[in-house]
Amino acid sequence: MGVKLLLDKAHVEGIRYYDVYRREGGYRSVEKALKMSPADIVEEVKKSGLRGRGGAGFPAGMKWSFIAKPEGVPRHLVCNADESEPGTFKDRYLMEFLPHLLIEGLIVASFALGSNATYIYIRGEYAWIPDILEQAINEAKANGWLGKNIQGSGFDCEIYVQRGAGAYICGEETALIESLEGKRGNPRIKPPFPAVKGVWDRPTVVNNVETLAAVVPVINMGGEEYSKIGVGKSTGTKLISACGNINKPGVYEIDMTISVEEFVYSDEYCGGIPNGKRLKACIPGGSSVPILPANLLFKTAKGEQRMMNYESLSDGGFATGSMMGSGGFIVLDEDQCVVKHTLTLARFYRHESCGQCSPCREGTGWMEKILKNIETGKGKMSDIDLLWDIQRKIEGNTICPLGDAAAWPVAAAIRHFRDEFEWHVNNPELCLTQNYGLAHYADAREVVVS
Amino acid sequence: MAEEQKLFKVTIDNITVEVEPGTTILNAARKIGGDVAPPAMCYYSKLKGSGGKCRTCLVEVAAGSTADPRPMPKLVASCRTTVMDGMIVKNITSERVIDARAGVVEFLLLNHPLDCPVCDQAGECHLQDLSYEHGKAGTRYEFSRRTFEKHDLGPYIQLHMTRCILCYRCVFTADQLTNKRVHGVLDRGDHAEIATYIEKALDNDFIGNVIDVCPVGALTDKTFRFKNRVWFTKPVDAHCGCDKCSGKVTLWMRGDEVFRVTARKDEWGEVEEWICNTCRFERKKVSDWTIEGPTQVSRHSVISQGHYVGITKPAETIDKVMGRKPQLLMDIHTVSGVNDPNVDLSEIEGPAHSDDFKKQ
User: Fold this and answer.
1) Model pTM?
2) How far apart are CA A366 and CA B216, in angstroms?
3) A42 and A159 share a domain?
């Protein structure tokens, strides 16, 4: 049983409400933080090695220290709750069951950054969660944790919940800021970065829900202690939302010291693949990170065991590795078709491209059309190379990371599953009725049919 | 106390230029000029906030600055990246840039109809120039292109969305000219379209300028549509005493007829001074204008073809170069009886016949 810092109280009855949450030791970190200086809190977060949980894994303390502090200009903290990555649902779990944990983290972070008006930008499809959050905010306010002069410290803070309108791109921090300002959610061209010019041209920090929630244990136990959990630069705990062909889909908190193999097969976590099927592939960090075949998922190219942490998952670069990403762990068993799966993702990115810059706007649609041809048996062998060339020309040439996110899954699918693409081209009739199934990248594990 | 501002030294394609801090790479490259200047489809120096969208101006930064000489990992949009002292930029000397640019051109042309033969912009189209210079001959796209209905934006402007490459220039123009946000982008991704608020006409004295900023033929002048090809008309600089705008325009004439009035454009195809709708759409008589003289058109432009502007008589003669007089290789009249120099063709009635030459 690994350490649990975020979800340890998730199953306490009534933890959603203030009284129970406070009784279980909630808001201690705010009490502690208000006695510290803001700079000390930032220092503490830096020491903890806490990395952004939204996908990029940028050190949170570092991000906080970058915020510009011009005289007389208000600063803002924005919580990115626009969790729209296919396969990722950890923030939803946190906000639904532990809204006060997020509010607590937000108050501490607002104090550290000097934000008197803090925003939670929540995805439009999470229609019922703003009510939960607003109730928690009202409860916190009634008990003096928000509003004017919090707990007699002289610090004022308000938290506002803003609903998105259902665009994936608004999870990109500058598009989120545009949308928050009431504009069309187009990503801004950087620089200037939000730390200098964010919401209404004021210095802004945008953090993921889980990052902000993790600030609470960091303050409670101290940065030094927090950094001892986990391994190397992957400190603390990470929420993984596991889904796909596994026995126990759900949100799991791991301390980043377990292996991928253990995560997939142990009963404590995913509980193995249902119906005695074998593992074919896995996307370890949400739909935009490269897909890995089973043989590269459990072992790195060097033959070491792959662990569930930032470094180990990205070991080998994109050639033989993937990324931790946002922690959306999608498992595909032998019955899944990688081409169809890639088409689904390509369709998603085509639909969600904002249309601002040309490589992403035109390229995502093109990739989808080609993939659709291959999937429906109308593909040509040259289409596979064409797909590769298109993704190469999108990647890195766009304003925001959506272009990369659209290119990587296609690139990885071709890189690791080219034989499956070729099989689709060579068997146009068969591919409509049958799946390619497993190949050399199969998991060698013996199938136990129960 | 005149504090001397330190100039930044930036090297673009091995040519060093000194520019003021805060200049973008693109503008520094334009200072050098020629092929070094990256193409720009969406950036417009007169429009605040424009640029960064089309990705044609991508360049490679080989060294960030003297203080931090690390290269930038990704290609950067030169129109939105400011120079640093000691920056080394590779534009046409970088294969990565050429490759990425060819990709961008291909992307831009994916959904662009190849209706240049009937498009009013043909001949002065930036996308035509761009694809000619940086694109590939064929397309690898085998699917149907997206199409839209044509829309009228008021009595003078027609929007042909099918041709649009979503550069957002007209959106910035409309935003910066008008108080209300009436002109913008609907939808997203490859089905995004330029539109006005509930099909509203664009109502502003200067709104005609959206036609000039459009790099392709998506926004066209309804008073000029299908009237003529731009290369058949002759551009002439003219001015008038307009009380709304500077009155400095280019007239596009054929004979005595003014076919079209546009603002004057600089060498990068950007409008020098905005002109008002009255000048653009209503002053279509030569008597409305004071003619200044022919417009200087780049020799590479199709518009300059056949105009012979700026051609000087070569100083070299055959005598000097070859060291001999020009000589006749063959006297055609000794072998052929046709076109005998002694026969005056005008005196022959009807079409000439070989018998006509044999008579004498």
Assistant:
1) 0.87
2) 22
3) yes
